[in-house]
Specification:
Layout lengths: L5 E9 L2 E11 L4 E5 L6 H9 L5 E3 L2 E4 L9 E4 L11 H5 L1 H6 L5 H10 L15 H14 L4 E5 L7 H14 L4 E5 L3 H7 L2 E6 L2 E5 L13 H15 L6
Parallel strand pairs: 3-8, 3-9, 6-7, 7-8
Antiparallel strand pairs: 1-2, 1-4, 1-5, 9-10
Helix pairs in contact: 4-5, 7-8
The structure holds adenosine-5'-triphosphate and magnesium ion (MG).
Length: 243
């Protein structure tokens, strides 16, 4: 499946309240678009809307793919909370999507992915017996298992230590090559590493953010990455988000 570009337009509203007005977001095909912004502005709501899941918020314009085809069946979401099945072991959680669709699960690929997220030997463990970071990596493996052209990652690395985070970022970039990825994060370094485009959402609207033109994922210690991180911090700390 070829990954389309996405276009999100309109006011993001919750009840009678506008969380983030005047969206005109373009997410380029086959690249990572990063969404940053203060807690409560509506990032996870937007993630659910892109994934076609029930959500108390709505977008007055809409969400469209540039190939004109519906999004249904083409999006996978790694939600902000891990959404793991507590009664299922790690392997069953990673293969859940296939089983829900009535497809034949691919245990070899699932075990390989468990290994890649550092959970080799943990296939028979239930989520409650794993650490927070291990559960997040299990949820990541489940997302990477899905073969969808559009992938929404809602703070997917937030529970990880710095070194593991960088490794998981590289893994996700490798596995999701060619996908249109929307990454929600509070981490400017993560945005600077992974984003081709980036937007700051706040109650006044969405503002495009500058990122290096070099190919992502960028090395953590690359001067351009660090300069972009510093610039993003500055933008996030500036109340009116002036350039
Ligand atoms: N199920 C719900 N019912 C009613 N209001 C909700 C629900 N979920 C979220 N909200 C409200 O919607 C708004 C946006 O929430 P959302 O989770 O999208 O924010 P966010 O930008 O992802 O925040 P964070 O960075 O803290 O994850 C908030 O005001 C929140 O209180
Ligand atoms: Mg959120």
């Amino acid at each position: 499946m070829t990954a389309p570009a996405l276009h999100l337009t309109g006011d993001l509203c919750l009840g009678g309240r506008r969380l983030c007005p005047g969206l005109n977001l373009h997410c380029a095909a086959g690249t990572w678009t990063v969404l940053l912004g203060p807690s409560g502005v509506g990032k996870s709501s937007l993630a659910r809307l892109i994934a076609g899941l029930p959500c108390p918020a709505h977008l007055t314009g809409g969400i469209a793919a540039d190939d004109g085809m519906a999004l249904a069946g083409r999006v996978t979401l790694m939600a902000q909370t891990d959404q793991l099945l507590p009664w299922a072991d790690a392997l069953a959680n990673v293969t859940l999507g296939a089983r829900l669709r009535g497809d034949r699960p691919d245990p070899d690929r699932a075990l390989a992915l468990l290994g890649r997220v550092g959970l080799e030997g943990h296939a028979d463990r239930r989520p409650a017996t794993l650490s927070g970071g291990q559960r997040q990596r299990l949820a990541l493996a489940r997302t990477l298992m899905e073969d969808r052209p559009i992938v929404v990652l809602d703070e997917p690395f937030s529970a990880l230590d710095a070194a593991t985070r960088a490794t998981m970022q590289d893994l996700a970039a490798e596995v999701l090559q060619g996908c249109t990825v929307i990454l929600i994060t509070h981490d400017p370094l993560e945005a600077a590493r992974l984003g081709t485009g980036a937007w700051l959402l706040d109650p006044t609207g969405a503002t495009p953010l500058g990122l290096p033109a070099t190919r992502a994922p960028r090395p953590v210690s690359d001067p351009a990455t660090l300069a972009a991180q510093a610039d993003l911090y500055r933008r996030l700390m500036t109340p009116d988000h002036a350039a």
